[in-house]
Amino acid sequence: MLQVADLVCGYGDITAVHGISLTLGQGETMALVGPNGAGKTSFLMALAGHIQPQSGTITLDGETINTLAAAQRCMRGIGLVPEGRRIFPDLTVMENLVVGGYSRPRSEQTLNLDHVYDIFPRLHDRQKQLAGSLSGGEQQMLAFGRAMMARPRLMLVDELSLGLMPRVVDECYAALDKLVAAGIAVILVDQNSDAALAFCSSALILESGHMTWSGLAANAPESLTH
Amino acid sequence: MAYEIVVLTNMAISILFALSLNVITGFCGQVSLGHAAFLGIGAYTSAILSKAGVPLVVTFIPAMGMAALVGLVVGVASLRVRHDFLAITTMGVVFLFTGIVRKQDILGGEIGIAGIPAPEFGRIGLLVTALLCVLAYLLFVIRIRKSWAGFAFDSIAEDEDTARLLGIHVPRFKLFAFLVGTAGAGLAGALYAHQIRFIGPDSFGFVESISVLAMVIIGGIGSIWGVILSAALLSALPQFFQIIDDFKLLVYGLLLFGAMRFAPDGIDGLLKRLFRRAGGTR
């Protein structure tokens, strides 16, 4: 479904990612592992269309999407759960979800809302509450739900467990499980590399912008992941 | 009676003006320190045309059009700057506007334009027209709020970067807000020119821009009803109490400071808190 070939991207003169290649099939999961500043977030942002690649290609379902704007990639099925969740605290849970669905036609809204509430019943119970009043785990679920409103087939998840209690982290992984069960492919970045590697089928290890290893998550060399 | 009509007309114009800024600053979160420039553009356009014999109501369209055209240019500039830089840029717009007007003989230069014809339908007619304009604009603004994409503005006002991450076309919404907001100010300007029947560069300066921003902040940024209430109060008070008129800027400044320090959500937030407490919930 997703092919990335020799992707180079960065900010201005600074190159953050030097030549990453990967292939991801329908419903597959991949962990991006590496220390701070390895280029994980930059890579996700390049996939989502928020930084322009300097060279290389990104292909989604056979279509090169390098030059497409973020909104168009969203419409083609790339969803993003940003680092730090970044929900809108002064909007209600439901309003947050509605905002997530603006790249889809209006007629789908009810259907998509029901779909999200199906996966995360807790969001349904709290739909009228201000998002800022949710707990950290619920906020992460809301961030998932908000991205789900755009009906993604590929979900980019940045720093899943950042700032969450261990018990809540388990809840988030359970939530992620539901997305995978629904046939959504996931590229996951998590500071907790053990959890990410245990969850994902394949892994890609980055270091200062270079790809140092890739393969099955189970075979990831411990020396590189810690 | 005549005096009350003047006060009410001024009130309606202020409400329209404040509502128009509320679209840009309230709905879309783009602070503008130069909104009076668009009031001025509308006023000058309407005044010149009306002196040339065009009926007042017809001048509304070019007044709104000119203001919106310049508004669109400022809007395009605003796509590149944010927060403090946007505030400075919009402040520049109002200084630029008065600066240019002062040097143009066609626009009356320093002296301004006097002898703007009285509206053909008299004072009461002007009041009714102003009220109808407010009503039409209000309905339009409520429609935007309640529309399907209404929350997109909220999301941009709250966190522009995240809105972008979610695939919301942020520039489109910003330009739309600038277009609607500046057109509203242009309409208010056309009414203003025919209410006072004299306009000069001093009527559309930085101070007026801050005054209208004060109305929006005191009313509650983004709150339609709060802004209407505060615009009505703040425009009427100086006309009933001479002392407030004498110290108008001081009063506005104090209210602005008070709102920012004690009630950042303005009158709207205060009332909501009061009702919530009275209702015993929360």
Give a short summary of the structure.
The complex is a heterodimer of chains A (226) and B (282). Chain A is of the alpha/beta class.
Tell me what portion of residues of chain B adopts beta-strand conformation. Answer: under 5%
Number of strands of chain A: 10
Number of helices of chain A: 9
- Tell me the number of structural domains of chain A: 1
Give the end-to-end Cα distance of chain B, rounded to a whole number of Å: 46 Å
Distance between the termini of chain A: 30 Å
Order of helices and strands of chain B: HHHHHHHHHHHHH
Which blocks of ≥5 consecutive residues of chain A have pLDDT under 50?
Answer: none
Question: Could you give a short account of the major beta sheet of chain A?
Answer: 6 strands, mixed
Number of helices of chain B: 13
Mean pLDDT of chain A equals 88
Give the tally of structural domains of chain B: 1
CATH topology grouping of chain A:
Rossmann fold
Specify the helix fraction band of chain A: 25-40%
Question: Any idea what the CATH architecture of chain A is?
Answer: 3-Layer(aba) Sandwich
Strands, helices and their partners?
The complex is a heterodimer of chains A (226) and B (282).
Chain A: E1 2-11, E2 14-24, E3 29-33, H1 40-48, E4 53-60, E5 63-64, H2 70-75, E6 78-81, H3 93-100, H4 109-119, H5 121-125, H6 136-148, E7 154-157, H7 166-181, E8 185-189, H8 193-199, E9 202-207, E10 210-216, H9 222-225
Parallel strand pairs in A: 3-8, 3-9, 6-7, 7-8
Antiparallel strand pairs in A: 1-2, 1-4, 4-5, 9-10
Chain B: H1 2-27, H2 36-51, H3 56-78, H4 83-103, H5 122-146, H6 150-158, H7 160-165, H8 170-196, H9 206-219, H10 224-240, H11 242-246, H12 248-262, H13 266-279
Helix pairs in contact in B: 1-5, 1-8, 1-9, 1-10, 2-3, 2-4, 2-8, 3-8, 5-8, 9-10, 9-12
